[in-house]
Amino acid sequence: METVRAENLGKSYGSGETAVHALRPASFTIREGELAVYRRRKLGFIFQAFNLVPELDVEENIELPLLLDRRRPDPDSVGELIGLLGLGERRHHLPGQLSGGQQHRGAIGRALITRPAIVLADEPTGNLDSSSSAEVMRLLRRAVDGGQTLVMITHNVELAAYADRVLAVRDGAVSELSGRQR
Q1: pLDDT, tens only, 107-131
Q2: Which residue, of 2, 66, 69, 178, has the fewest CB within 10 Å?
Q3: 71 and 108, same structural domain?
Q4: pTM (two decimals)
Q5: Does 130 lie in the same domain as 101?
Q6: Predicted confidence band at 182 (pLDDT cuts at 50, 70, 90)?
Q7: Do residues 161 and 103 share a domain?
Q8: By the 8 A CB rule, do 79 and 59 touch?
Q9: Which domain holds residue 138?
Q10: In this structure, are 62 and 29 located in the same domain?
Q11: Whether residues 47 and 121 fall in one domain
């Protein structure tokens, strides 16, 4: 059964000759279901703003999606991910005690800990130096090679080179630039 149906949904700013079409009309449906559970189990989010819980340390922030799903975190898996993210010495620090790049890596760990089917990433290396960016992209690539799907929004051409498929949004319209289908 359909819960949401959108027909010719679009968004424009302004009018006349100066109108900006942010989203050309699109139609879709969303079926009925327990969306919060689905989102928690099947989707991982990497936000530009990190959204770490300020009262929780790095390790607790990474474990949070598991705990919300009433699953016991595996200390070995959590430790391995924290090590891969280069946060081993910072695992018990609060977000306010971390650099922006360290907070970003903590947010990436939180998105990956449940091994979601799909990871949605908004500029996943936006606050990282080039070395850390390359390491994070290798980690995300490993997740993809392990069967996960990464949907990444970026303005960085070097990051787009990691993708199997590249789509562009120009003047509100989506077009395929390059890539190969798996």
Answers
A1: 999 999 999 999 999 988 887 788 8
A2: 2
A3: yes
A4: 0.72
A5: yes
A6: very low
A7: yes
A8: no
A9: 34-179
A10: no
A11: yes
The Cα–Cα gap between 87 and 92 comes to 9
The residue count for the chain: 182
Handedness of CA 106, 107, 108, 113 (dihedral sign): positive
Residue 115 tokens, joined: 């091994």
SS3 letters across the chain: CEEEEEEEEEEEECCHHHCEEEEEEEEEEEECCCHHHHHHHHEEEECCCCCCCCCCCHHHHHHHHHHHCCCCCCHHHHHHHHHHCCCHHHCCCCHHHCCHHHHHHHHHHHHHCCCCCEEEEECCCCCCCHHHHHHHHHHHHHHHHCCCEEEEECCCHHHHCCCCEEEEEECCEEEEEEECCC
Domain check: are 66 and 25 in the same one? no
Same domain flag for 92 and 157: yes
